[in-house]
Amino acid sequence: xxxxxxxxxxxxxxxxxxxxxxxxxxxxxxxxxxxxxxxxxxxxxxxxxxxxxxxxxxxxxxxxxxxxxxxxxxxxxxxxxxxxxxxxxxxxxxxxxxxxxxxxxxxxxxxxxx
Length: 114
Known about the structure:
By secondary structure, the protein is an all-alpha fold. It has three helices and no strands.
């Protein structure tokens, strides 16, 4: 017997529950990012950097698996998707990482522990 095969409502509840939990986690991590940037606390930027990096990797893996299961006709679309994800997400990741590095260097010059 397959998981939730007999009860599609249960499957939807699990599906939306998962996305709600991920959304709330992203909300908290985004709030930490904003608070860390405003208070110039580089430690609060790290959770966003880690989650964004992992998210980028998982998205690329999912796109590669999709291309592998759907054959060569899906390859071009998947390649473009990967390229867009790497460019846009990578840019944001680089900006936040650079700002964190700048805050850490300024904090060390002023004698703060980061």
